[in-house]
Every structure is written in C-alpha cells, then in structure tokens.
Amino acid sequence: MEDVAAAYRLLLGRAPESDAVVAGHLAAAPDIGALRDRIMGSAEFQRVAYGPVATPTIRRAAGYDPVPMEIEVSAKDAERMLAQVRRVWTALGQEKPYFSVLGEKRFSPALVEANLEAFGKTGRDEIEVLKRRLTALEIDPADHPDAVEYGCGVGRVTVPLAGLFRKVTGFDISEPHLELAQQAARIAGRRNIALAPVKDIRALDVPQHDFFYSRMVLHRNPPPLQAQILRRCLGRMRVGGIAVFQLLTHLEGYRYDTAAWLAAKPVEEPEVHVLRQDIVFGILKELGFQPLHVARDHSLPGFDRISTQFIARRVRLD
Fold first, then answer.
1. 10-residue averages of pLDDT along the chain (318 residues)
2. Sign of the CA dihedral with 292 first, then 300, 270, and 256 last
3. Strand ranges in 151-285 using DSSP code E only, listed in sequence order
4. pTM for the predicted model, two decimal places
5. Residue 144: strand pairing partners
6. Across the strands, what pairs with 169?
C-alpha cells in the first residue's frame, strides 16, 4: 500500500482516492515496474506530465534548423553503405534474429523459444492496426492484390500480411533472417509469399505491385539508402497503389555527412538514421504520389525523436 501511495504522490501529485483503488492496483500490478506502467499509462498521468516533459522539448525544437542531408551519392558509395548494413544485419540474423527485430528480453536467444507465439502475435496485432487505419481511409486491401514488404525480417509481419493480399513479396538484407521468414511462411501454410535478398537497391528486382509496406526498417539505413529504397520500391507501384511506411524524420542532435560516415570505423550494432520529412515529400511528389495520412506513430518512442508514418496513393506514373 505504501508503494501505491508513494507512486501517486510522485507521479500524480496527489493521494489515492480510496483504499479500494489501492487494492485494485495491488491486485493488478505484481511488482513495482507493473505499478509504474499502470499509473504512467493512465489518462491522468498523460495530462499531468505532458507540460513538464514536453515543453522543454518543444522549446528546443523551435530553434532547430534543417539538418543538412545529402541523399545523392555515387554507386560506389552506395555499395559501401549497403555492404556495411548487410554485415551488421547478417550477424544479427545469425546471433539473435528475433531480438534484432523486437528488442525485448523475452525475444532474446535464451528465451525466445518459449515466447514464439507472443512474437507472432505482435505481427498479427500490427496488421490489425493497419487494417483499421486503411478502413478509416476507405482503402480496401482487396483492391490492391499484390504487396511488397521491404525489411521483412523473420516474417513477423509478412505472414499475417499474406492473409490480406493475393501475393506478398518480402525483401531483406539479411539472408539468415530470410531463412527464418521462409520457415515461418511454411509453418503457416502461406503459399503466396515470395522472399528475396537485397543485393543492390538500384537494381532490386521489385515486381509491379499495388501495396507497399515497411516499418521499423528504413531508419537503420543512412539517408541516401533510405531515399534509394523508397524510389526503387515506390517506382514499381501501379497507379492507384497504396504505400504505407514508417521512418524517423527527426532526432535531436542527429548529423549526417556521407564522407564522414564512410571514413568512420564500421560499427557492430544497428544504427539509427533520419530522413527529413521534406525529402520524403519530395520523393513522393517526384514519383506521382498523393499523401493521404502523415502522423507521428511512436514506433520509436522518445521525446528526442519523431517517428512518422506516411500513407500515400500513386496517382500518376513518373
């Protein structure tokens, strides 16, 4: 009871309403972490904490200048970038494939076997969210039979996505991830999934399609690669097709320079990169897309960053 009262004072600035409310929290929260999450997830906490937490961030953002961002690079430089990304993600696919997709302890190599069903459920839940968003925009997946997913990983989303479309083609830079995705498709009995490795983005054999999906992937690539991925994949979409993708459009302190990136010592962990929103809009315009919905999506939570989901329709060929 003391823990609940202390949490109320610290997080909400008041005492609990009653002993019954305290008992309810104790019954629902088995430990301090669960109690914290329960209170911080409440509408009251969001109201009380928004000002103190968000106001400093908003003030800092007001003074930002656009980050210089080179997206046009030589084929040789793009190849070096892609090789670095492939090296990191191939190693992750060999060592901790599920954890690299969703960085939760329960999906670490030592624990993932007991949590494979929970892992699969996150993909099904993601597709349910997608379906609701499409319904709100009056988009029927049945009108867009052929889909492409960039960054399919181990097939977490690919398999349930195949329940919406006639065919899904999944691309990934890590062949160990793709092997697990193939296994997941086979176990699920999905015969309408084709998987392919990413060797060269500019020559990527993307089939003509009506729907494009990518989430939690693009920000792992330097800005020039993100731009190339979007241009290559969206450029193969039929008129009337729908693109749904997420990336980071802002990160406090982020700087990017191609020469500096190429000269730096290669990293061993996945990187986090930004693609400015105006650049994304420029690519959409260049390829004949009309934005339908743009919103912060919280895929990468934090007050120092903005993760944005874009939904757009192709209205003309470039």
1. 83 86 82 84 80 68 75 95 96 96 95 97 97 97 97 98 97 98 97 97 96 97 97 98 96 92 91 96 97 91 89 92
2. positive
3. 167-172, 193-197, 209-214, 237-251
4. 0.87
5. none
6. 148, 194
